[in-house]
Specification:
This protein is of the alpha+beta class. The chain has two helices and nine strands; from the N terminus they run ββααβββββββ.
Length: about 160
């Protein structure tokens, strides 16, 4: 008697049957592995260089009526900003953003450009922003630096714990 290999939600029925069999035979072992796997998955986070505040082109937080926005003042149209992730902390939420330099193969007008990007953080929640600046084609690596709070010069910004 053959088993069906019909795809059902990205998982074959055969795989679902094998998983169910595993859960029935080794319930204690599986229940012990799940929390350990979740801890390992959550242990990795972005690398933060708290010793050096962000020193790149202008970036600030603008608290709109519903959510916080990041406002990036780029020196030319080739620059870009993206939010990589948002994480909750006991004191509020952290937003990690990447700023990419322009591709040097292209010519850009020397015009200051303001880019706005909405975060998922409600205005009522405190926000910490960490930024890294990468080349246009760099892989997603590099440490994030804290953004100085509004009205505080970058060289006088307190370093988070």
């Amino acid at each position: 008697m053959g088993r069906s290999h019909t795809v059902m939600g990205g998982v074959t029925i055969l795989a679902a049957i094998r998983l169910e069999t595993l859960l029935m035979r080794f319930p204690r072992f599986i229940h012990a592995l799940v929390p350990a796997a979740l801890l390992v998955g959550c242990a990795s986070g972005p690398s933060i260089d708290a010793s050096t505040p962000y020193q790149g082109p202008g970036l600030r937080v603008d608290s709109q009526p519903k959510v916080h926005h990041l406002v990036f003042t780029a020196p030319s149209p080739g620059w870009g900003v993206v939010i990589d992730r948002t994480t909750e902390t006991p004191g509020g939420e952290r937003v990690f953003a990447t700023i990419r330099r322009p591709n040097p193969r292209f010519i850009y007008p020397q015009v200051v450009v303001e880019q706005r990007i909405a975060t998922s953080v409600a205005r009522e929640h405190p926000i910490e922003v960490f930024v890294r600046e990468l080349e246009f084609d760099a892989e997603g690596s590099g440490a994030y630096s804290p953004l100085a709070p509004a009205g505080v010069p970058a060289d006088a910004a307190p370093t988070p714990p």
